[in-house]
Amino acid sequence: MGMNTQGRPTRMAENIQTGGYADTVSGSRGLDQAEPLIFERGNLEHCGVDLPEPRGTASRLGGLERQGQIGLPGLAEPETMRHYVRLSRKNYAIDLGLYPLGSCTMKHNPRLNEKIARLPGFADVHPLQPASTVQGAYELMGELAHWLMTLTNMPAVALSPKAGAHGEFCGMMAIRAKLDADGQTHRRRVLVPESAHGTNPATAVQCGFVCDEIPADKTGRVDMEAFKAKLGDDVAGIMLTNPNTCGLFERDIREIADLIHEAGGYFYCDGANFNAIVGRVRPGDLGVDAMHINLHKTFSTPHGGGGPGSGPTVLSDALAAFAPVPYVVKDGETWKMVEHAAEAEGEPFGRMAAFHGQMGMFTRALTYMMSHGSDGLKRVAEDAVLNANYILARLKHVMTPAFEGSCMHEALFDDRFLKDTGVSTLDFAKAMIDEGYHPMTMYFPLVVHGAMLIEPTETESKSGLDRFVDVLEALAMAAKSGESERFLAAPVHAPTKRLDETRAARQPVLRWTPDSGAAAAAE
Questions:
Q1: Which residues lie within the region annotated Disordered (predicted)?
Q2: Global pTM?
Q3: Longest C-alpha distance within the chain, in Å?
């Protein structure tokens, strides 16, 4: 079935019915080309190059010759190229415009990082090569580990976690290993603030813990009285994001760390928002015992599209002995990889991955660190916070900030400014698409009703921020002026119109079949 039967118009006939590009014969509009599925374009009975059957040559397939058509569309090379180029023009990307997703740090990736990652010896390194042939890669990993520990003031780091949630798993497994080694197997309750990332409670449960939620106070931070009331001899630790998901710094962070330690637990800090404090604050100084660091956020490696990610996890003195294998160490004038627990000095809780981690991410991250220097990394955090507060200051007269005062790296608004307008947070976001912007993070964090979370990052210029703010200001004024129909119809200029997103997510059509006339998901 074609994409049009999923509520996604791709051909002229369907566009006319759905309010798409019905004002042109081709279905295209200027340089925005209409493009059907490749199965709808191609001819299933032919391939791009038709060759005559070979003569006088015996088959070497041993009776495994194809007996019929395999259902792949046949397109010539120019047609195939145009298909994918046209599809690429429908993608929004950080190289196209400001990407305001909150809590995701979608910032510019310097091309220098990409150049270095593609150097011979890094781009084609293989994890099964002899150690003598990968000394440069080992040294790079050792150097990266050094700077991650320096920036966080932590004595150990595991490089092998593949992403943020994998890094969380690493930190919580280290905490569990430490508790078990100390005979504290009854400690299985983990405190999780209600503004936490969804992966936090999921990770805790996966590691065999139970979660106990801590409410937020009226300022959007941990309710200290509620936190103190939940401390007990069964508490394993706390999983807290700082700055938190509301874009606010937890002012009581030192007291939280001291209290959790006094109770016999450990402090896991979600490092997804490290970009807001890198070079300015060292988590180890705050009493943190474990923290993952998203190299694909803070240190600008490519982010999105399913990866690749990288989530190294730093550990405190209390947990360092339980760091997983493998890890690199300097052995005289050479480097080596400690692959097995029996070779390690401590008590590794196990192994996180088959091999050593994401070399491409390591290379990019270290390049980013070295090109910025310590002063540059500090400036990253300062400018990220400055840009978010600029957006907050410019929009607070027409939109409603979720909390009073300044913010850290992201500005959080709620939907009170849309009250009685007939326009919802979703409608507002869809109207942004018509203006050429990817929407901000919507309805998250869950503690804020109709949340709109904006993280501009440090890589946006003032002129770029002004253009973005002008659009949001105009949309807010339009909503308040009663132009609700404009929002309810949006997006009208995008190739894909508004869908039944809930149904599309719950009943996705993942395999193409010829049109049968039957109803499909999100029709």
A1: 498-523
A2: 0.89
A3: 87
* Of 394, 191, 197, 391, residue with least CA distance to 294: 197
Name the nearest CA neighbour of 504 among 2, 5, 1: 5
Antiparallel, parallel or unpaired: β 313-315 and 327-331 = unpaired
Q: What secondary structure letter does DSSP report for 324? A: P
CATH code for position 336 = 3.40.640.10
Residue 153, phi then psi, degrees to nearest 5: 55, 50
Residue 144: CB partners within 8 Å, gap ≥ 6? 159, 312, 362, 365, 366, 369
What's the confidence (pLDDT) of residue 306? 57
The 3-class secondary structure across 114-168, one letter per residue, is: HHHHCCCCCCCCCCCCCHHHCHHHHHHHHHHHHHHHHHHCCCEEECCCCCHHHHH
Token pair, residue 21, equals 């590009």
Q: By the 8 A CB rule, do 13 and 43 touch?
A: no
Q: List the CATH number of the domain containing 423.
A: 3.90.1150.10
pLDDT digits (tens, 9 = 90+) for 218-273: 999 999 999 999 999 999 999 999 999 999 999 999 999 999 999 999 999 999 99
Q: How far is CA 495 from CA 33, 91, 208, in A?
A: 9, 10, 45
Burial class (CB in 10 A: 0-12, 13-18, 19+), 59: exposed
- Position 283 in a domain: yes
Kindly state whether residue 519 falls inside one of the protein's structural domains: no
Q: Which amino acid is at 20?
A: G
The secondary structure element, H or E, covering residue 452 is strand 452-454
Q: How confident is the model at residue 516 (pLDDT cuts 50, 70, 90)?
A: low
Residue range 104-117, pLDDT digits in tens: 899 998 999 999 99
Question: Does one domain contain both 262 and 394?
Answer: no
Q: Are 304 and 275 in contact (CB under 8 A)?
A: no
Structure tokens given for 73: 């569309």
C-alpha to C-alpha distance for 339 and 345, rounded to whole angstroms = 12
Q: Are residues 271 and 404 in the same domain?
A: no
Domain boundary among 329, 354, 369: 369
Which domain covers residue 443, as residue numbers? Answer: 373-506
Beta strands in 149-280 (DSSP E): 156-158, 189-193, 210-214, 235-241, 266-270
| C-alpha span between 303 and 295 (Å, rounded) | 9
- Which residue from 81, 39, 113 is spatially nearest to 296, judged by alpha carbons? 113
Beta strands in 317-359 (DSSP E): 327-331, 334-338
CA angle at 522 for the pair 106 and 509, rounded to the nearest 5° = 80
